[in-house]
Specification:
The protein is of the alpha/beta class and 202 residues long. It has 2 domains: 31 residues; 166 residues, ABC-type transport auxiliary lipoprotein component (Rossmann fold), CATH 3.40.50. Helix content is 33%, strand content 32%. The protein is built from 3 helices and 7 strands; from the N terminus they run αββββαβββα. Strands 1, 2, 3, 4, 5, 6 and 7 form a 7-stranded mixed beta sheet that branches. β6 and β7 form a beta hairpin. α2 packs across α3. The N and C termini lie far apart (102 Å).
């Protein structure tokens, strides 16, 4: 091998090594984004406590809400399409988070529980964008007060809560959902208070 050929080979090898090094550095800079995890916060007991405190609380949701993905709709453009925030997630599916809040706020001591069961079916838990810069947290749910045994509801009620978000992003939606979750808890407590203690003695 001549000196000229050796030098040419060395230059080519140097260029290849530089390219590989830059590629490795580029790979390091493109690490996967770690999603921010949010929840609905802790709920305090409602005061004054309703006359009817459920002995059991069950919250259910359809399969498309049985996920920790933070879902939203662009109502101004694609109202039928559900989308998810790529870099933000809930700590648990909405039904689980709402059930935890209701248990914290409404669970009765075993000695004073009315014996009724509360069942909540969540139909919607989505951040709706009416415009690119304006969104609202939407919770729609159906509540049933059930006897200790059996499935014949003693009372039913629909709840629909809409809470404006402070910003048109996932973080603003979380704050709005926390407020909506608190309102839902208080409205359910008020509903059971209106029913009175006789509801669970039928």
């Amino acid at each position: 091998m001549t000196l000229r050929a050796w030098k040419r080979g060395a230059r080519i090898l140097g260029v290849l090594c530089t390219g590989l090094a830059l590629g490795a550095c580029g790979g390091l800079s493109q690490r996967p984004v770690v999603a921010a995890i949010y929840d609905l916060g802790l709920a305090g007991a409602v005061s004054p406590a309703p006359a009817v405190l459920p002995s059991q609380i069950e919250v259910r949701a359809p399969s498309w809400l049985a996920t920790s993905a933070m879902q939203y709709r662009l109502d101004y453009r694609q109202p039928a399409q559900r989308q998810v925030f790529a870099e933000s997630r809930w700590a648990a599916p909405p039904a689980e988070m709402l059930q935890r809040r209701l248990l914290q706020a409404l669970s009765a001591p075993s000695s004073t529980g009315g014996g009724c069961r509360l069942r909540l079916d969540v139909d919607e838990f989505t951040q709706a964008f009416d415009a690119p810069e304006a969104s609202t947290a939407v919770i729609v749910a159906r509540a049933e007060l059930l006897p200790p045994r059996g499935e014949n509801a003693l009372a039913r009620r629909m709840f629909e809560l809409r809470e404006p978000a402070s910003s048109a992003d996932a973080k603003g939606g979380v704050t709005a959902f926390r407020k909506a979750g608190e309102r839902l808890t208080n409205e359910i407590a008020g509903w059971t208070a209106e029913l009175g203690a006789q509801a669970c003695r039928r």
